[in-house]
Amino acid sequence: MSPSDSDAYEDWLADRLEERLRALGAKDPACTRAGCVEQDPFALTGAHPDILCYEHRAETRGRSWLEDDHPAGEANAAFATPIPGNDHRVRTETYQAAWPQETLRNPDGSVLLKAAAAVRAWLDHMRLIIDRTVGWVPELLELLDAWLRTRLGPHWWDDFLAWAGAR
Amino acid sequence: MRAPEALEVGIRGWVTPDYLRHRDSHGQGAPYEDPGPSSWTLTFDSESTTDTAQRLRVGAFQAHRNGRLRKEGLFYDPAALTSAELEIVRAYASASGIELMVQAEFVEKVFFRYAVFRRALLIGHNLPFDIFRLAIDHEPAKGKNPAMRGGLTAKLSENERRARVQVKRAHPGAAFIRLTLPGGRQPERRNRERGGSSPDHHGYFLDTAALAGALLGGRWSLKRLADTLETEHRKSDADHGEEISPDYLDYLRNDVQVTSECSSKLRNRYSAYRLDKPVHAIYSEASIGKAHLDQMGIRPWRRGDFGAPLIACVMESYYGGRTEAMLRRTPVPGVYLDFRSQYPTAFVLQRLWRYMICEAVDSTEVDPGAVREQLEALDIEAVLNPSLWPALDMLVLIDPDGDRLPTRARFPRKPTREGILEPPRTLNVAVPYRSGGEPQWWTLADCIASLLHTGKAPKIVRAIRFQALGVQEGLQPIDVAGNPRYRIDPYTDDFIKRLVEMRAEVKAEMKAAKRAGELDRARQLDAIQLGMKITANSIAYGVGIEMNVIEHRKRVDATVYLPEGDSYRTKLERSEQPGKWFHPLVATLVTGGGRLLLAAAMHQIDQAGGVYATCDTDAVFPVATKDGGLIPCAGGTRRAADGGEAVQALSWAEVDDIASRFEPLNLFDQKLVSGSILELEDENLDPDSGDQREIECFAIASKRYTLFTRDEDHRPQIIGSSDKRKRSEHGLGHLLPPNALGPEVDDSAWKDRWWEHLLCLELGVPDPEPDFFSLEAVGRLTVTSPREEKTFRAHNDGLPYAERVRPWNFLCMAHPTQTERARKNGRQCLVAPFERDPAKRRTMDWIDRNAPERGTTRIRTDPLRRIEKDSTAVLSYGDYFEEYRLHPEAKALAPDGQPCHSWTRGLLQPRHVTPSKIIRIGKESNRLSETAMPLELDEEAVVEYPAPRVCPGCRTTVEGRRKWCSEACRKRTARRRA
Fold this sequence. Notes:
- The structure holds two protein chains of two kinds.
- By secondary structure, chain A is mainly alpha-helical.
- Helices cover 56% and strands 10% of the residues of chain A.
- Chain A has helices at residues 6-24, 54-60, 85-95, 101-105, 111-134, 137-152, 156-166; strands spanning 44-47, 50-53, 66-69, 81-84.
- In chain A, the strands form two sheets. In chain A, strands 1-2 form a two-stranded antiparallel sheet.
- In chain A, helix 3 crosses helix 5 (111-134).
- By secondary structure, chain B is an alpha+beta fold.
- Chain B contains 26 helices and 55 strands.
- The longest helix of chain B is centred in the N-terminal third of the chain and has 26 residues, at 246-271.
- Chains A and B meet through helix 1 and helix 6 of A and helix 5 of B.
């Protein structure tokens, strides 16, 4: 299963997301530290109402907000790069956890699996950047569409386009 | 007044089962915060076989997230489909691009995934039925939650770590549904370990039928609901059980779509209330009232304020509405009067809001002599003065001596051939003359009502006045329907009064919007005004006396408290658990106030020389014509010109005068709610001209009457709009429509025809007997409790689970005639698969639900009651009609002072009752459909709290089945007697 196997991945991710929300005890959790905008449930820890993101939790414990990330998995490449704790959590929980276990663990040290892990790591990082920057936009648009349908009717865009054309 | 008859009298008791004794009075609620369902919803529906098992054939589901369809599919039971049907289903799913899975796969991959892991809101129309289609086994509900006791648990998966689904019937239109905790460590537990407050996840279920009942009132089929809510898709028609075809699968998928749309519309409606209570926790109209109280931060009344003996006094004084028929089987002209919002009005008049928001309720003994003196000084003028009403918050212990007081008794009804009066099973409430027996508690309002009826004050032995102490802190104002214009401040406003006023305002706006053609706005306002009505009624009356009946698998120990401070121990099969907002004082004062209003109207009719034909809680029908005069009537005290007995008809002007005298009791804002609280109903007016017209009433017994006019040919025409005719449905509710319509079709035209034919017979107007009278009368039975399910045990024995009658199956039920039932091993109660078509019912195989080993039989109707080998004669609609038409009014005596017989006509007289035995009882909950009683299946029997057995020797309580406390006591008593 991988993000490219969209249906299965979506189901898998939805299950993990709901489980995460249940453990946090909130429907729309967010880091409670003033000024923090972290809302990804996979980057949050604690229990409602005392929810913090991993970076702020680390800070309260006197640790660095950066964590060492093994992009291809420790079994495939020993090197690690420091990335923000929240991004690290999101990546490992939502992308890396979906990798085939043979690729992630690679117990025999297969070079092909190492290569596969490296490619997956690159893809994960790109997806992470995309998701963390504009990943929230599609759902917002879908919600907005649903809202406009209820308010303005099933073909609200006809009026909208007419209005836009008249400007 | 005749000599009193000794009858068994029932009194509402106050009982605490042992298992509830140490429970906090209003808080099983753990301090956990439920985050509510996720953004997922799962809507599903199933189609079943049409045999008694009603096993799953094929089902459909849709999963939505944030209102957008994410997954759709079909599921099926491979054993219930032929290979050809299976091929069709496969081809259909493939062509439609939807998923297809077997039942077990659906349960694992969809049901549990959404219900448990994704915390989705599970939606269905009549959801318990669909849940039990997925079951592979079931058992009576167990567990710590007493609210689910008496329910049933469905096992959906062989995997023992999966949750099970508990379902318990809450009322005929709704059920509580919850998941048991699955095996393993759940995320909620992890949350609590980290300091969170998530409660265990028991699933979120929304039955659109139940939610529609709560928001719109009444019972709703999916078809009618979709039409009313004007959903994008509408329910299509198909024959259930027909061969599976692409069209049938289209129908099934469409049902899911319609259910989903109805759910969406209903949730939108509910969101207009702006209440914190989640929509999946709304089961009835009362839920909405309770949600408003929660929203204001009101703390429920604490039972500790009173103590058990005082609560027993309050419960003893509790009675429901007063319903009577005084002119039996005699058509009379009159005026239909109705108290506007009777219970809310009684609530407002007595200023009972203070009892809802007070810190505590105090009670003080008052000098009974002083109360009686004040009572003797009262007259109708005082009752019609609003200043009297706030002082009615008093209970009085009365030693009855010919007083007219509400009494719940086993009125003898059916005279047998030998002339022996056979007591019926049920207890009925009437307002007879009462004498003798131990003193009993009633409300002061009932005491005043008796004074109005008899002209003498009852003998008061004790009196307790109640007082609301302090006001709770921290109450919040609320904006009803989220509109700041409809703001209610619990400190400064009487919530009920404001609701009634605001409703009048909203109704006026709604009418204006309709006139202006703003239909969307009119619909929105209609929903708001309906919500206000529901809220006002449920808070003013419903929630205060909410008692949830719990059935137990084993009898539980309980204590029955008596007003004198004594108590006795008993064992119960069913116990009652008071609702969160249980406030019996408010409930008894409201209903007592309602009865006083009615008594005041009756008193004035009597003072004017008139009589009333019938009364029904908030309505009364005085005999009246435009100019008044005499109406021939058996038992009447007047004499007509021909010397015959007659009653005096009031003139319309006199009736108007009576109604207008209630104007001072209108405490509502006169600009919004003007005029008298006793008003002429619209049925009195000609629909074309709007002028008052002559209408007639024909009553058989209480709750069995109709209002009608006559056309040029003197044929009776029942008045009212086509969907709301003024004729009773009481006593007919258990019968299915005789025409070939389904359970989802709300056809009541046959009841109109029933009443029309009845009137024609009584008025001597030629009318052919309706065709359906010769048909077998069939009722619908739904298996909703372990007790009902147990009656099918013999039938289910030895059958694989899929072939058994399982919970929420609905069946046809027919009752054999008396001749058949009286035979040795005669069949008592026949059931068969649900079938809409009466013709097909005759060719089906029926079984005796209590003795299926006797084999199957066909049913037929037979006026000659012949016994045939291969078929059983069952009661026809015509048989029920005869019983209905001649149903005696058990609560009253015939004009000659004898018990009311089937053939009795004319002016009835109140009975005179003395208690032969007092029985403590609970809420009416034992549906007679659980029994084999053929008639009056919609009446309810009560839960009785049996008094302990007392040793005849030393009068001590004896346990178990023993008669004597000891052998020594028996011998000692025998010696003494000798």
